[in-house]
Amino acid sequence: MTRRGWCPSLATPMPAADGLLVRVRPVFGRIDAGAARQVAAAAAAHGNGLIDLTQRGNLQFRGFDLGSAASFAAIVGGLGVDQPVGTPGLMVSPLLGVDPAAAPEAGALAGEIAAVVAGMTGLEGPAEKFSVSFDAGGVIGLGSVGADIAIRTAAIGTAAIGTAAIGAAATGWVVDDEVCSAGDLVAVVRRRLEACAPALRAGRRPERMGMARAARVPPLGFVAYAADRGAFGLGLVFGAMNADLLRLLADLAASFGDGVLRFTPWRAVVIAGVTQAAATRLADVAAAEGMIVAGPDWRFGVQACVGAPFCAAAGRATRADALALGDTGRGVHVSGCAKGCAHPGPAEVTLVGRDGRYDLVRNGRAGDTPVRRGLDLAAVRAELMMKVPA
């Protein structure tokens, strides 16, 4: 399906075994409770109600045909919750504008950077996955999310930035490996985006520009950011939910927090404005619905694509298999095929579905040469229990 006639605020549907997928990229990763309920209702009415929270903090809705996808797009597009299609994705710290420990100028800067990002239009194909991250610091910083351009706040001490000296109490900004002042940040980001523009508008992703940083632990449970308020992180196993669970999340945000759902790249949803007393009740309700409300949890160490029967390329029910491996699966990527959609990077162990069994790759990607082939789940478990020299 081409973009012609398609809702301009939503990504073009993508084919899958259970129908078309429609991706929604929430503005600043947020949807308020009222809009979330409408999105959930539209997903159930026009699709199959299944939803994936991606590693870019986006939502993928499943089970549409061309007509129902257009109906869903019209509803969601009218809510104004999605980033403009054909532009880089922008991820921001979940508590931007709420957490007093974040950089004080971050809200205004994020708005300016969003405008610059929105001006880079016409991206299609692989280039559409190009992303910018904006880490404002605070109690839940954005950390490493695999962004192509990574922006973060940093206390830089006494240092010369440009032509001005910034004092020890000041906060600077870092764009990948380039330090700058708040006043220069937007210009630096614009320059880096313009350098990427030729490749992106040709439908190619340039080589990743962002610096590699240590992965964050998903924010789970209650995290205080003020004397009487905090945020609560709710983990979703494999980032999977359905329309009913999205509705429940909206109700939890309205009942226990500030009425806004904040979707993160860590398969977790954050609700702000929660009191310590309310956090206990929120945790009880969420845990009863299968959400993860405390860490560490081994399920966050496993990557698994949607698998069979939802993907025609997958020969195994990858998520069920990943859960069946239990804690032995920590650090494992379970892929239904060699494309490695859930985790394009290397993993300590990658299992690749083929002809109803798994090939095993060590310290590599799904498309790399396996060291073992044709393993059933029992053989996979035995391999994972073995101690292999680094």
TrEMBL record:
Span of domain Nitrite/Sulfite reductase ferredoxin-like: 17-70, 232-283
InterPro entries assigned to the protein according to its UniProt record, in alphabetical order: NIR_SIR_4Fe-4S, NiRdtase/SiRdtase_haem-b_fer, Nit/Sulf_reduc_fer-like_dom_sf, NO2/SO3_Rdtase_4Fe4S_sf, NO2/SO3_Rdtase_FeS/sirohaem_BS
Keywords: 4Fe-4S, Heme, Iron, Iron-sulfur, Metal-binding, Oxidoreductase
A GO term for molecular function: heme binding
Coiled-coil ranges from the UniProt annotation: none
PANTHER family registered for this protein in UniProt: BLR3264 PROTEIN, FERREDOXIN--NITRITE REDUCTASE, CHLOROPLASTIC
Protein known as: Nitrite/Sulfite reductase ferredoxin-like domain-containing protein
